[in-house]
Specification:
Blueprint lengths: L6 H4 L38 H12 L6 E8 L2 E7 L2 E5 L3 E6 L7 E2 L3 H15 L30 H5 L25 H6 L15 H15 L3 H13 L4 E3 L13 E3 L1 H12 L3 E2 L2 E2 L3 H7 L4 E6 L3 E6 L2 E8 L2 E10 L3 E6 L4 E7 L14 H11 L3
Antiparallel strand pairs: 1-2, 1-15, 3-4, 5-7, 6-7, 8-9, 10-11, 11-12, 12-13, 13-14, 14-15
């Protein structure tokens, strides 16, 4: 079990071999270690060079707040990889000051962890350890049979994945005051005892508690916890060796927001979904489950007349108009500006990390980079 001990132990010494020092990418390309990710020249990519250089300059000059990394994978090659120093935090520790982010830096990914937990569950399903996504929640929690009554009897794994199980949940208050702080002994009891406020499948309500239940289902179905399961069946096949899972005060692995990873490894995860669940020719997640995960299964209350935001298997699904064009893409995202954009329409994956945890109403941040630069760079390729 890898545990976070002290902040200084988590900040890897800057590896100058891999640090990207140049602010101009016109005649450079990301370095090519033996990690399975092909790299290419930005000036040969189907992107507008001037727009991408404007992205670099805008972040460097602070116009986009506290961005730590941006990686752009376009048409089967990583063509842009840049890191910036910035103030950061580590879950269970807090502020760790200004960190010199680089190729080998671990970074909190917060709720991107939910998408990794979903991937683990899909793998367990493909292995036959879970019968189906329609299997009942309480099949895995027999010791809580006293709650298996009424509409709760209808809750399935699929409802947990799509955050429409119908349980009362207040993500910003009840969860912050209990599970997020790890101050209650029996987290599963806390989640399962919540009252029903909607019929299962009826309404989206964001709940980190559902993700924690999904991790428990993976453990109970496979016999190993979410850390060991992802290590064996997801991270090892992807060649991901350097990562950490946060352990809460109550002893649970934080499946909903506890991963720390390198930006390049976040890219690998995005590529796994871009490429229909395959990595280096090996099918890690069945294609049909990847396809399902990147199509909206339930609508959310977010969006407007031009933007539709759906949800599916712990991924956000966007249908948006940018510069007058409709674009559809999936996204894994986490508090503070942690983002994996999976744009199959344009054969692109965008990864960003940032340190804007719990900060709202920023003028510009990593959330805006796809809209302001990356997609326009595709549209305006000369």
């Amino acid at each position: 079990m890898q545990k976070i001990i002290i902040a200084i132990a988590l900040i890897t010494t800057v590896n100058m071999t891999f640090a990207q020092q140049s602010l101009s990418y016109r005649n450079t390309k990301p370095l090519q270690p033996n990690d399975g990710i092909k790299t290419g020249w930005l000036n040969k990519a189907a992107l507008n060079l001037q727009i991408i250089e404007a992205l670099t300059d805008s972040i460097t000059h602070g116009n986009y707040t506290n961005v730590h990394s941006v990686l752009i994978f376009k048409d089967d090659k990583l063509v842009y990889e840049q890191y910036w120093p910035g103030v950061d935090e580590v879950r269970m520790i807090g502020n760790v000051g200004t960190v010199p982010h680089h190729y080998d830096s671990l970074h909190d990914v917060r709720s991107i962890s939910k998408s990794f937990t979903s991937a683990a569950l899909m793998i367990a399903l493909s292995q036959g350890k879970i019968k189906s996504l329609q299997q009942r929640l309480f099949d895995f929690f027999p010791e809580y049979a006293k709650y298996d009554t009424g509409m709760k009897q209808l809750i399935t794994i699929e409802h947990l994945l799509n955050m429409n199980a119908g349980l009362f949940w207040d993500e910003e208050h009840a969860y912050n005051d209990s599970l997020k702080k790890g101050t209650i002994g029996d987290a599963y009891d806390f989640i399962l005892r919540q009252r029903m406020v909607h019929r299962p499948g009826e309404k989206f309500v964001y709940s980190s508690g559902y993700t924690q239940l999904l991790a428990a289902i993976v453990e109970r179905a496979s016999g190993i916890n979410i850390e060991k399961f992802t290590s064996k069946y997801l991270f090892q096949p992807l060649g991901i060796k350097n990562y950490q899972w946060t352990v809460e005060k109550n002893g649970l692995i934080s499946a909903w927001a506890g991963l720390r990873m390198r930006s390049r490894d976040l890219l690998k995860f995005g590529l796994l979904y871009l490429k229909n669940g395959k990595w280096n020719g090996k099918q890690i997640i069945p294609k049909n489950l990847v396809t399902q995960s990147l199509k909206p299964q339930i609508s959310t209350p977010f969006g407007d007349s031009l933007l539709s935001i759906g949800y599916s298997n712990q991924f956000w699904i966007y249908a948006d108009h940018i510069n007058g064009r409709l674009v559809n893409y999936g996204q894994a995202q986490g508090n503070g500006g942690q983002i994996i954009v999976i744009d199959r329409q344009n054969n692109l994956v965008l990864v960003t990390t940032a340190g804007n945890y719990d900060r709202t109403n920023l003028r510009k941040s990593s959330w805006d980079l796809y809209y302001d630069f990356v997609y326009p760079a595709i549209l305006n390729k000369k």
